[in-house]
Amino acid sequence: MPTPPPPALTADAAPPRGLVWAAAGPAALGLTLGLVRPDGPGLLAAVLLPAVVGGVLVLTTPALYISAAFAGMAPAPRALLGVLRRALRDGGLVMAGLAPGLLFLVATTESARAATALGALAVATGALVGLRLLYGRLFGGDDTGRGLGLFLPWAGVTLGIGAYLLRAVLA
What we know:
The chain is mainly α. Helices cover 76% and strands 0% of the residues.
């Protein structure tokens, strides 16, 4: 007799261990990008990059929740936190997966600017995947387009703040 599949993971039941990947992925990219620093390996980037990712979400998530509440589309706060944890985990997994390839490219390139640009692209890829999955989990069933109208400006501001802080970390 085959065993039944495990129950689907709901937003309320998102595993806390996912936050390990949310930090490990950006830390791996930060450590890789720290290799191109002129003052030697930058372990500081391995600490600052996860702080930037988490800090930007902590800073901007209340605006998303408040705007969704005004539009009558806000999930329960607990569900929002679960969805955010899963999006952070997913983005962190993408960043962790890109880190070995980025390490190879950073180690073989002669241009620090090219290495920094590739690193920024890897961080942006992880962030965009996480944001896309966050949108799908929060507003995926919205047929009116209001969810997209709320999410796109918020995502743009979030990415802009993140890019500004990333530039400060990589400088």
